[in-house]
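tool_call: predict_structure(chain=1)
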Amino acid sequence: MSMGKVYLVGAGPGDEKLITVRGLECLRRADTIVYDRLANPRLLRFAKPGAEFIFCGKFPKHHTLRQEAINELLVRKAQEGKQVVRLKGGDPSVFGRVGEEAAELASHGIEYEIVPGITAGIAAPAYAGIPVTHREYGTSFAVVTGHAKTSDGKPAVDWMSLGGIDTLAFYMGVKNLRYICDSLIQHGRHPQTPVALVRWGTMGGQQTVQGTLETIVRKVEEVGLENPAITLVGDIVALREQIRWFENKPLFGRRILVARTGGEQGNLADALSERGADVIEYPYFSVHERSDETVVETIARSGEYERILFTSPESVTFFFAAYRRSGRDIRELKAMFYTLSRRTGQKLQEMGFASEIVQPFSASDKWLVVGEACILKNREQYETEWGTCDLLAIYEKEECYEYNANMVRLLRGEPIDTIVFPSAASVETLVRYLERAEIDPYAMFSVASLVCMGERTAEAIQAAGYSAERAASPTLESLIACLITEKVNE
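tool_result:
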C-alpha cells in the first residue's frame, strides 16, 4: 500500500468563508478529516461522500484526544494510504501545535503540507472594528498565549519584553485575565489602557466586551464571558466605536435555525449569515444521482408525458443531467412543468423553462413525478391528488451524520431565537430529527419565533400542532425583510 499524505490545514477564525482556497481544496479530497472544536463544523459539508470524520475537540478541562494520541492517529491514517486533513481553528502555526504534529510525521517519513489559515488574533479584532495596527495608534503587534504554562497555573510570559509593543493579543486568556491585567500594569502599562475581549469572533454569535486594564475583569465577570476569546490590549482598541462594522449588520445577534429537507446548496443560510445572523442548518443531507436502467428507460419515453412534476431543485438538476447524457433532443419534451415550491420553479427558470405550482388535475392526464428514491413509497399520495402517474427516482438522499451530530451539539448550546421553515416538508422533517436527537420540539418552538415561507408551509406547521408567529411570502427577499423588521421592533 502506498503511503498517504497529511495536510495540516488552518480552518480560519470561525466564519466558514474565511478558510483559504487551498484549505478548501484539501478538505474536498480528503479521505479522513481530523477536526477540532474551533473549526466551524459547517465546513464538514464540503467533504466528499464516504469521508471519515474524527473529532478531537479540546474543551476546557476535557480533551477528546490527547495531543500524543492525535499525533499517532495522523501517522496511522497516512500509513494506511489515506489523504488526511487535520483541520484546526485559526492558523495551525499560531498556538496550534502544528510543529509537534509535523515533527511526528517527519520522523516517520510521512509527506505532509502545512496550509496556513487566518488567525483569530487578527480576524476577531477586525470583525469587532479593531485593526491590530494603525500608524497613529500602534505600529507593533504581538500574539501571546494566555494559557497556564507554569506550576502555579499562570502564563509563562516575559512581561518586560512586552513593554515596548503597542498592541497585544492574548489567546484563550479569560481564566487568567486578572493576572494578565495586573502583570501588565506592574510592568508599566497605564491602568487606563483600553482592553477588548472578543468571544467567538467572526461568528454571528460574536460578543465583545470593552474596558481598561483596571475595569475589564469586572466587566467580563458581569456578563459571564468565557473562552474561546481573544483579549486585545492597546490604545488601538479606541478605534472600535468609529469603525465597528460586523456588529452593525441588520441581523447581528439573531440565532436562526433553518430547517432543511434537501441536499442542494441553497442561498438562504448564506443570505442570513451575510446579514450578520448566526445560522444553523439542520438536518443536512447529501444527494447522489441514480443512473440505473429505470432512469434510462424513463428518460427515453419522457416525451410521452403531458405533465411533469419536479418535487425538488435536485430533481431538476439530475433529470436534465440524465437527459443530456441520453443524447436526446430537448424538443421531444412536450409536457407542462410543475413544482411543489417556488425554489424548484426558480431552478427550472435558470435553465430556461417556465413552470407552475402544482394543482389537482384530471385523472386522464399522463403524469411523471420526479424526485428522490423515497417518492416510490408515496405513490398512493400522488395518485390520490393527481390520478395515475409514473414515479422517477432520479436521486438518493443520505443523511450527513457527522455534520448533523455537530449541529445537535450547537442546538444544545445557546438558545435559538428564530426558526425558518422554507417548505411544508421541512416541518415534519425537523420535528422528526429533533425528537431523534432527544431535543423537545415543543420546548424549542415555544421560545423561538417561527417563520414560515408560504401558505402551504404555514398550514403544515399548524397541522403539526404549532403556531407560526410570522408568515413570509415564499421569496428570500420577503423573508429577509420580515426578519429585519422583527429585529428592529424588538
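agent: The two ends are 61 Å apart (CA to CA). Proceeding to next step.
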